[in-house]
Specification:
50% helix
């Protein structure tokens, strides 16, 4: 960890995805004041992210509709499609900005959760 100077954090911009990593990010910030942590999120997440001590960076696009499948979606059996379609739209709209940020910032590490397709696609594109 001594050689790491910059970290991107890319989890789904929802409280249930941010909360689990928040204490880890806070602890990293407390132990290494020279570490720059850039934590991506939506407007609604800004205060929660700033409490970790990380730099908040807003995703350039986030769907205005909730990506969580609603009860009506389960009745017609397309909940997975609704979620996948929303995630694809989200990733499609932000990837070029994330690649640009990656090239500019050159992070040493990217922390992401299982559902953070934007991070997985970014890593695939930059092949790091």
């Amino acid at each position: 960890m001594n050689n790491i100077k910059k970290i991107f954090v890319m989890v789904m911009p929802a409280t249930g995805h941010i909360n689990p990593v928040s204490s880890v990010i806070h602890e990293l910030n407390q132990k290494n004041k020279d570490l720059k942590i850039i934590f991506y999120g939506a407007k609604e997440n800004k205060d929660l992210i700033l409490k970790t001590g990380a730099e908040y960076r807003e995703y350039s696009y986030y769907p205005t509709e909730d990506l969580t499948p609603q009860p009506k979606d389960f009745y017609v059996g397309n909940a997975v499609f609704v979620l996948a379609n929303g995630m694809t739209d989200f990733c499609y709209n932000i990837l070029s900005d994330l690649v640009e940020d990656f090239e500019k910032e050159k992070p040493d590490l990217i922390i992401y959760d299982t559902f953070a397709l934007q991070a997985k696609y970014l890593l695939h594109i930059v092949k790091r």
